[in-house]
Amino acid sequence: MSKQPPEGSTCLDRARVDEQLLAVGRFANEVRAAIPSIPIYPKQPPNSPWAGDPVPTEPPLGYDI
């Protein structure tokens, strides 16, 4: 018996079959990872030490890098 995919089979077909196989057996209860979004923090009051960047802007070096 040949292990070759049937003629006309594509990588998309293989990916669909693999996805179906992941839904059964020992992988059935696998939890997918959720990627949280970047939090948006409220603006700090002006007297807060985190209200701004304390490092001044650096002057140019005078030559191209």
Explained architecture:
The chain has 65 residues and is mostly helical. The chain has one helix and no strands.
Concise structural overview:
With 65 residues, this protein is mainly alpha-helical.
Q: Outline the biggest β-sheet.
A: none
Q: How would the global form be characterised?
A: elongated
| Helix/strand class | mainly alpha
What is the multimeric organization of the chains shown? Answer: single chain
Helix content: 10-25%
Distance between the termini: 62 Å
Count of DSSP H/I helices: 1
Order of helical and strand elements? H
Rounded mean pLDDT score: 78
Give the strand content: under 5%
Secondary structure blueprint with pairings:
Blueprint: H1 11-22
Q: What keywords describe this structure?
A:
65 residues, mainly alpha, elongated
